[in-house]
């Protein structure tokens, strides 16, 4: 009996010890969980999240690959930082939460400019802006920030964004000395390689790379405020020159072909440039220059034409600087400064013209703006109005084509409307040109210039000037040089 009691006491003591050990164990587990909860909770809540909570770590892990797109040269006025973004995480990366920074040292006092030559996600979904570092260092005082729109989508785990081919350039054509830039690496000229001197951020938090000293400013990841509707084209004409690869990629051709109008067979690429101009939003303009000495051999005309973009009905808008005086030489030439849309010459031929003639032409005086809608080029079947006004300086021209009516407006005031058969019947190209009706012997050389600040087109809506301007302002604010939601990705 004593032995049985002893066994029961031993068992009771053993159970008490077991319970005590269990209590201690679970208390320790609870303590560990409580202490580490902020870490695993933050990771769990940020996984797959679009939150910009600055206190939590960026869940996705990224890497940036780089190579220079052009042969490195310290005498060139441009550099081409080409990049690829790689998702090295186990979950998708939402691209409009990502920003990239390419760091450089600015030469001279004039600002740099930029454009997108090509992007696998579409240049229309890539935005850029140049930002000054709060504390410059020897090899970096600015960076080119790259962000993406919501329509850029996301990167799957282990996926690569494909090429993002960017161009950084000096509009004044001076040398850049890219070898002195923090993010440049000339050894990567033939293949994409990881570059830790290009930084990547997710929701403003560093996710890849090493910042130069003085670079720790917040990285904005806000989506670009684009006009999200399908059927939009915008271009602010940020290009290095008529041979810029981005110009052709964005659907523009600099005319050198023979033919008219004006002085036949005198179209020259040398008449097209993209200078900095005071009073232009964003700084740069498309400049179209026509020159003459009164002879055909001494005459050049300039034109830029769109390619493979089906401009049709909707809203066309352009901010244009017209000139009543030549930039150089005596006045008096019958010069035309034009913005027009035209289709191939066929049974559905369509053409919409806004043709400014500061000195008149075609036997009629100036200054005047001819607003014309065509039905047939072969038959000369058109309807037009001669608006007897001077347009010297900056003006915004808006043309709408909707529900059988074409309306021409200047600076918000309606000038002319056409209806009936005088209405577009098929897609057209969009074009700007400067040309002479004929040559005159006025003495000496003359030079005429027309500038275009930006072009905006919306195929889905008819818009007022204020609506257009609000949209264009948003595009500039977001760093969008070029948008095309009509054609295939560029």
UniProtKB/TrEMBL annotation:
Domain CBM3 per the UniProt entry, residue ranges: 59-213
Record bears the keyword Transmembrane: yes
Transmembrane helix as UniProt keyword: yes
PROSITE patterns listed in its UniProt record: CBM3
Keywords: Membrane, Transmembrane, Transmembrane helix
A Pfam match: CBM_3
Bilayer-spanning residue ranges: 20-40
Name by which UniProt lists this protein: Cellulose binding domain-containing protein
């Amino acid at each position: 009996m004593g032995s049985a009691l002893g066994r029961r006491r031993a068992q009771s003591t053993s159970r008490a010890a077991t319970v005590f050990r269990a209590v201690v164990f679970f208390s320790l587990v609870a303590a560990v969980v409580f202490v580490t909860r902020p870490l695993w909770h933050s990771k769990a809540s940020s996984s797959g999240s679009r939150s910009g909570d600055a206190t939590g770590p960026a869940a996705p892990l990224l890497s940036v690959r780089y190579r220079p797109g052009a042969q490195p040269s310290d005498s060139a006025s441009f550099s081409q930082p080409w990049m690829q973004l790689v998702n090295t995480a186990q979950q998708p990366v939402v691209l409009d939460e990502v920003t990239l920074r390419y760091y450089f040292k600015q030469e001279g006092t004039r600002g740099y400019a930029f454009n997108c030559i090509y992007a696998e996600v579409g240049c229309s979904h890539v935005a850029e802006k140049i930002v000054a570092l709060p504390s410059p260092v020897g090899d970096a005082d600015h960076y080119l920030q790259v962000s993406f729109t919501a329509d850029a989508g996301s990167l799957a785990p282990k996926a690569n964004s494909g090429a993002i081919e960017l161009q950084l350039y000096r509009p004044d054509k001076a040398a850049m000395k890219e070898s002195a830039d923090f993010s440049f690496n000339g050894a990567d000229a033939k293949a994409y390689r990881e570059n830790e001197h290009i930084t990547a951020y997710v929701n403003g938090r560093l996710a890849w790379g090493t910042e130069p000293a003085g670079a720790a400013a917040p990285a904005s990841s806000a989506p670009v405020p684009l006009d999200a509707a399908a059927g939009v084209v915008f271009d602010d004409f940020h290009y290095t020159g008529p041979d810029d690869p981005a110009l052709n990629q964005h659907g523009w051709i600099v005319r050198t072909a023979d033919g008219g109008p004006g002085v036949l067979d005198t179209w020259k690429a040398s008449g097209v440039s993209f200078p900095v101009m005071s009073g232009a939003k964003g700084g740069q303009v498309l400049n179209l220059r026509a020159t003459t000495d009164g002879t055909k051999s001494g005459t050049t005309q300039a034109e830029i034409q769109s390619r493979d973009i089906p401009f049709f009905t909707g809203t066309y808008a352009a901010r244009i600087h017209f000139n009543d005086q030549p930039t150089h030489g005596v006045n008096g030439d019958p010069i035309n400064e034009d913005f027009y849309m035209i289709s191939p010459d066929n049974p559905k031929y369509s053409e919409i013209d806004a043709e400014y003639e500061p000195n008149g032409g075609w036997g009629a005086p100036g200054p005047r703006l001819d607003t014309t809608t065509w039905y047939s080029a072969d038959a000369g079947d058109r309807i037009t109005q001669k608006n007897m006004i001077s347009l010297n300086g900056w003006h915004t021209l808006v043309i709408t084509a909707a529900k059988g009516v074409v309306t021409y407006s200047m600076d918000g005031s309606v000038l002319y409307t056409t209806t009936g058969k005088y209405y577009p019947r098929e897609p057209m190209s969009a074009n700007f040109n400067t040309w002479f009706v004929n040559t005159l012997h006025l003495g000496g050389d003359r030079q005429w210039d027309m500038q275009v600040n930006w072009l905006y087109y919306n195929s889905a809506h008819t818009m007022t000037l204020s609506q257009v301007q609000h949209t264009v302002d948003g595009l500039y604010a977001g760093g969008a040089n070029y948008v095309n939601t009509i054609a295939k990705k560029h």
